[in-house]
Fold:
Amino acid sequence: MRTSQQFLAYIPLRLRLALWFTGALGAILLLVGVFIYWQTQRTMLSQIDHALELAAVQATLNIESREDQLVFQNLDENRIQEQHLDDDFVVYLLSPNGAVWEKLGNNNQEPVYTTLPAGYASRKEHGEAWRILSQGVAVNGIAGNLQVRQDMELLENALKDLRQQMALGLPLALVLAGLGGFWLASQALQPIDTMTRTAQAITADDLSQRIGHRGPADEIGRLAQTFDGMLDRLQTAFDRERRFTGDAAHELRTPLTVLKGSIGVTLRKPRDTMDCMETLAVMEGEVDRLIRLSNDLLFMARLDQKQMQLGREWIELEPFLGAVLDQIRPLAMVKAIRLEETIPNDLRILGDIDLLIRLFLNLLDNAIKYTPQAGTVQVSATQTGGQVEIAIRDSGPGIAAAHLPQVFERFYRAEADRARRLGQNGQGGAGLGLAIAQEIARAHGGRITVTSEVGAGTTFTVWL
Structure:
């Protein structure tokens, strides 16, 4: 068994399919052929039996007694042949002990069977086959035995021809079926060959190859579409990783360049204490920025790898958001921004309190950053169906509609220059805050949406 399985493993799939198809078709054709042969034999034999019965009836009607024996009266071969018997037939009228009283027929070489039971029987002697109907007869108290025989040469020849045709036709049909099955299997597996070539052509540098199946939407078609969809997702993921790596390198390069420049200036010429303090302050700011960026990158990596263990506890929303607003309030006071909150005291959310604090701090920090001096940031919450909806609205310049689909992408900033100008000591955002907030929301089974109108502000809505 194992050897046959190992052998089959080396046979191409299309050939295996063709062999299985041919074998199955051969078995079906063999069964059908056996049935046709049996049915043909049965039908022809039934026709012979019916003719024998009619001949026996005709003969019985023409039997009379004469001198202690039975004889045919007014009966000849022509009248027997009228009952659909072939030329080669014999009718016997026998005594009870097997002596021949009368005989009609065209064959003089046939044997006489004196001990046949009543009914139909088949006999074969010297290459000749006979179908025999035996029945008892009695006239005027004289009993005898009537035998009507029909040579089955026509039946035997017909069956022989049928066997020969089947012996020739079955192998020919199997050969044609095998070739046709191989061709059909090749056509059906062509998309798989295309998939193989496509997969072999794919490299980490080029994920643009696609199968582009244009055939029917059958199992192979769905497999090809699934394969193309997988490649689309892989290409999107690779592109995102490349963009992420490039953006991260760019974000890291800026503070490192500032640090290197500050150190170089300090080392090249003597500086007084005040200049050194200013340089160290700049360097400290850039180091803080590097630390924040590194922490954000590590946090995103943990979220991507599903390594973040979420705590699950019920959180009263009103005191929770109040505490978050208290943390961000000093930043708002620097720009004289007014924080307004409308939070019902009966709302609760389920989640990890530390991660949710980070989510709302990121959103509030973003709102304050883009809100002008003496502007307003509003926080409101409502119950919508089975979810809590928390909206954070700012009175900033808004975001152009073309930028809205990308605001949650990593390192994406619709107004990067302005973000830099709003940061202190070069501590502008790196474009990870909104991406982190969205990932935290998704980890809680929620999402964040954004709506904005240029000149009228932006609203971020958290659904939890």
Remarks:
- Residues 251 and 430 are 7 Å apart (CA to CA).
- The longest helix spans residues 219-268.
- The domain at 311-463 is CATH 3.30.565.10 (Heat Shock Protein 90).
